[in-house]
Structure formats: C-alpha cells, structure tokens
Amino acid sequence: MLAAVDHVQLAAPPGSEDALRAYYVDVLGMTEIPKPVVLAARGGCWFRAGEVQLHLGVESDFRPAKKAHPGLRVTGIEAYAARLVARGAAVIWDDSLPGHRRFYSEDPVGNRLEFLEPALGRQ
Question: Among 3, 6, 59, 78, which one is most buried in terms of CB atoms within 10 A?
Fold first, then answer.
C-alpha cells in the first residue's frame, strides 16, 4: 500500500548545484540535506522543508519540462509569494484551481514549481 510521497526528483544540468542551492535554500527557505556518499559522486543536491523533500539530479542532456512540476503546499501563500519576489524569483498567479490560491515559479534551471494553499471558504 502506498503511504506517502517520500520525495520528488527534478533534473538539472551539470554544474548547476551552486545556483540550485542559492534558490532552494535562500529563496525557498529549504535546508540542504546530505546525499549518501555513493550518490553524491553523481552530482546534484537534495533539499528538505518539514516532510517535503526535493532531489535535484544531474542530467547531461537536461531540458526543463514545460508542464510537469511538483505541487508544493504552503501556508501563508501571500507572504511566501512576497518572499520569492523580494529574492528575485518570478511569481505567476493562477486562479483556475477551485478552492485554492496558487502561483507558479521556476528554479534557476527552468524547473516549473507550483505553490498552493487551500482558500478558506472556497474549497
């Protein structure tokens, strides 16, 4: 039986780890977690915020997906969006999901990320 999502893996181009760290730690407020030694040699980096884990793996012929993305539940979505904007990240609001406030952003290598919060009274 499935119990939970353990992590989501996104791809990134070789040599992008420093830019990813700056975005996922400084912009999103996540914490970098060490990769197991056997996997660290492959490059990439892993991040955590509470129970949410995002793993960025190196892909030599990387191309960001245009539609595929993780949907990340947040609290205080207006303040979180302001945090991203203040740190130079683009925020694109989308009101097409009933019962939710949500926006999209992209990491420095073009991975699409969705941030959403249930809207009180609109569920």
Answer: 59
What CATH class has 8-118?
alpha beta
Helices (H), 1-123: 17-21, 37-40, 77-86
Distance CA 10, CA 115 (A): 16
Q: What is the mean pLDDT of the chain?
A: 94
Q: Give pLDDT tens digits for 9-57.
A: 999 999 999 999 999 999 999 999 999 999 999 999 999 999 999 999 9
Q: What is the pLDDT of residues 88-119, one digit of tens each?
A: 999 999 999 999 999 999 999 999 999 999 98
Joined tokens for residue 97: 């999901």
Please state, as a whole number, how many other Cβ atoms lie within 10 Å of the Cβ of residue 84: 19
* Geometric angle at alpha carbon 87, from 84 and 93, rounded to 5°: 30
Chain-centre distance for alpha carbon 1: 26
pTM (predicted TM-score):
0.92
